[in-house]
Design brief:
The protein is of the alpha/beta class. About 30% of the residues lie in helices and about 20% in strands. The protein has a seven-stranded parallel beta sheet, with helices on both faces. It has a six-stranded parallel beta sheet with strand order 13-26-25-14-23-21, sandwiched between helices. Strands 2-1-4-3-5 form a five-stranded antiparallel beta sheet, with no helix packed on it. Strand 3 and strand 4 (about 105-115) form a beta hairpin. Helix 7 crosses helix 8 and helix 17 (about 560-575) packs antiparallel against helix 19 (about 605-620). The protein binds a DNA duplex through strand 1, strand 2 and strand 3.
Length: about 725
DNA sequence: ATCGTCATTTGT
DNA sequence: CAAATGACGATC
């Protein structure tokens, strides 16, 4: 039975015995590249039949190929030497894709170098074939990927999988276009609003490495500012890579860049393009036909020629963390690339992360920020609304349970012919509550706002329901309609909120933007624009008001970054509002005494980032310290930790159970954190890599997830 | 997956 | 004491 299956060609026995199979050698002998047909045939005939393998001659020069194999095992994370056969001498160029026999299997790999000699004591195997001579892994890209793998304690092959799109033969066959011409030097006068802004761009223009952390002013046309920076680099013949969190941002930055440096000089790299187009655009970058790359996180590896500038916008957005091993972060990869290539880095956003703050405080980067005078002309007026607020007197607004100031701010915006933005918690993020008996929506006894489950827990017990507007917990619910004490969860999304609010403003159209459908822009006319964080449309001419009603949900999260994240989302929405001088107002539903609210009122993200970083130092949390998480079954986690030599400053926290439990009540998965002082981060990564290597070599079945600088810590 | 190495078992 | 078998680890 089994004998009826034809063995694949490459499974034929190697040297001897094939004298009895005269045909074995001929079928694949015709290599299209050999071109000269008659000579090729004569040569093949001259070689007497037996397997071609034994007959292979090493290449006349540089016969050794260093090959990185595409196997994600940590103990095989190094190049292996192969012999280049005579026939592949021309094709086997550094950086090309190859196929090699590795441990009896044919595997894909990359040829990273041709050399004269090998350290290997035994006989080298030959390259099986060259998949294509396109040098997709040149030394520069190899170095980037190796460095990223080392930083995260991961393997090169894992990083290569993130950095190189799958090959598409048809796209590869198309000829490379002409390199785009150098664009004109752009007008960068808009950067004079920021201290050290012009100085930073001068450095980029002079090809001197400079690093900047930039907080954009409210209302800033930041895609255009980024395009100007990219154009500065491009105008002096350097490349630029700009990474933004999502597709919507990418569209804006891409348009701005195309207008600034020309359609042909910029390319958008984005997931979900389709294999051919994805590879085509990536090749255009590799071949140097475009100078400016705009993309989402995978573009952080874009092999742009002669890079002069790397940019990450809104580095606090968790989309910048790649969810695939070894979980690299855009900001950190771009820092590494900028450093390695002596080019510049720009970390921009409306808000500032604790990580960016550390770059500034350590002197690694300069703060590019506006002074208070500029800020005063740009910022909207911010009014916090805490627990004690007056519900609007207007009858319809009372029905919608809207605070009076919020109602008034929205009304003024509409009166001025402008839209108003309402930011509400993400749908499903927080379920709303209704009576378990009669299904009447459950309302707060204090302000009549809707009750919801905040999520998270205190001392192991789930948090009690709380009001969506004022945040007051409800510990003894009783239905107003039927007297039942039972509660049931209902989904209250942006849609429902929109309907409720809409009734308060008859005649004003209500638009929603959220997970289901994200609007890019809304016209500059009266409208109530209800959206979840991150989905705020840009309004033509700016919003007249923004109502930030999700503070209690954002701030209530059990997360080290809750405050930082809240300010980031508020500022992203608030930046779309007109300046106070033009009547722009922000109403934020949170206590005025909170520092995060103060930071919004004063529009001072740097101050808040300084506070955050100070707290992280006190707690010994990132980015003040470096952390790694080790996650898996209890046995697997224990085996890694037991095998991990701790650096001097090393400390293990946990392990703690992770959510799911088995029938016996034991955690099926655990997570431990390993903490070291920042200077030992590199050592920790190497030690974790080695521990993973020993584990892989033992062929351990249970997977362990090792992550450096994980975002979620609590 | 496959191959070589080295230790152990089995057959004289 | 030599040949056969098996466990293990490297994998070019």
């Amino acid at each position: 039975m089994s004998s009826s299956e034809p063995a694949p060609l490459w499974d034929l026995p190697e040297p001897s015995r094939s004298a009895s199979e005269p045909k074995a050698s001929s079928p694949r002998a015709g290599k299209p590249a050999a071109a000269k047909t008659s000579a090729g045939r004569a040569k093949a005939a001259a070689k007497k039949a037996p397997s071609r393998k034994g007959q292979q001659q090493p290449a006349p020069e540089l016969p050794v190929a260093k090959v990185v194999v595409d196997i994600p095992l940590a103990h095989l994370d190094r190049p292996f030497d192969y012999q280049v056969p005579d026939k592949l001498h021309e094709a086997a160029v550094p950086g090309c894709r190859v196929r090699v026999r590795f441990a009896g299997q044919l595997v894909d790999g990359y040829l990273v170098e041709r050399t004269d000699t090998t350290e290997y004591e035994r006989k080298l195997a030959y390259l099986e074939r060259v998949t294509s001579s396109e040098p997709v892994l040149p030394a520069s890209l190899h170095a980037v990927c190796r460095s990223v793998a080392d930083r995260y304690g991961g393997t090169l092959s894992d990083v290569l999988r993130l950095a190189l799109p799958p090959r598409h033969a048809k796209a590869e066959g198309e000829p490379a276009g002409e390199p785009a011409p150098e664009p004109d030097v752009p007008d960068v006068s808009a950067w004079t609003r920021y201290q050290r802004g012009p100085a930073f761009l001068d450095a980029v223009a002079d090809g001197k490495p400079a690093n900047a952390v930039w907080q954009a002013l409210p209302g800033e046309d930041w895609p255009r500012r980024l395009a100007e920076a990219a154009a500065v680099a491009a105008s002096c013949g350097r490349g630029a890579v700009l990474v933004v969190p999502d597709h919507r941002d990418l569209t804006r930055v891409h348009e701005a860049c195309a207008a600034m440096v020309g359609e042909d000089a910029v390319v958008a790299l984005i997931a979900g393009l389709g294999p051919a187009e994805r590879y085509r655009r990536w090749l255009a970058v590799l071949r140097g036909t475009v100078r400016v790359v705009v993309g989402t996180r995978a573009a952080m590896f874009a092999p742009v020629a002669d890079p002069g500038l790397f940019v990450v916008w809104d580095d606090g957005d968790d989309l910048h963390l790649d969810p695939h091993a070894p979980y690299p972060h855009v900001r950190d990869v771009l820092m590494d690339r900028a450093h390695a290539t002596k080019s510049s880095l720009l970390v921009g956003g409306f808000a500032r992360t604790a990580e960016a703050q550390l770059l500034v405080e350590s002197g690694w980067a300069q703060a590019v920020v506006a002074d208070r005078t500029e800020l005063r002309t740009a910022a909207p007026r911010v009014t916090p609304v805490g627990e004690d607020f007056d519900v609007a007197r207007d009858e319809a607004a009372r029905v919608a349970r809207l605070p009076a100031v919020a109602f008034e701010a929205a009304r003024q915006a509409f009166a001025a012919g402008l839209p108003a933005l309402v930011q509400v918690p993400r749908r499903g993020y927080v379920p709303g509550l209704a009576c378990g008996n009669c299904r009447t929506p459950a309302h707060c006894r204090r302000c009549a706002g809707p009750l919801a489950l905040p999520g998270g827990s205190v001392d192991g017990a789930p948090k009690p329901p709380a009001c969506r507007w004022c945040g007051v917990p409800e510990t003894a619910f009783r239905c107003q309609a039927c007297g039942s004490v039972r509660l049931r969860a209902v989904i209250v999304g942006a849609k429902r909120t929109a309907e409720e609010l809409g009734r308060a403003f008859p005649g004003v159209p209500v638009r929603t933007s959220g997970a289901a459908e994200v609007l890019a822009t809304v016209p500059g006319r009266p409208a109530l624009v209800v959206c979840t964080p991150g989905a705020e449309p840009v309004a033509e001419g700016g919003y007249g008001a923004a109502l930030l009603l999700d503070g209690w949900a954002l701030l209530g999260r059990q997360d080290l970054r809750a405050a930082e994240e809240t300010l980031r989302r508020w500022m992203a929405a608030g930046a779309l509002v007109r300046p106070a001088s033009s009547g722009g107002r922000i109403i934020v539903g949170a206590e005025a005494g909170l520092s995060v609210v103060q930071a919004l009122v004063r529009w001072d993200p740097a101050w808040h980032a300084g506070l955050e970083l100070g707290q992280r130092r006190e707690l010994g949390f990132p980015p003040a310290m470096r952390m790694a998480s080790v996650e898996g079954t209890p046995d697997a986690v224990a085996s890694v930790l037991d095998d991990l030599p701790l650096p001097d400053t090393g400390e293990i926290l946990g392990p703690v159970p992770l959510g799911d439990f088995d029938d016996a009540g034991n955690a099926s998965r655990e997570r431990a954190l390993v903490r070291v002082a920042r200077p030992e981060g590199k050592t920790l990564a190497a030690l974790l890599h080695d521990a993973a290597a020993r584990r892989d070599a033992r062929k351990a079945a249970e997977p362990v997830r090792i992550q450096l600088d994980p975002l979620e810590l609590i």
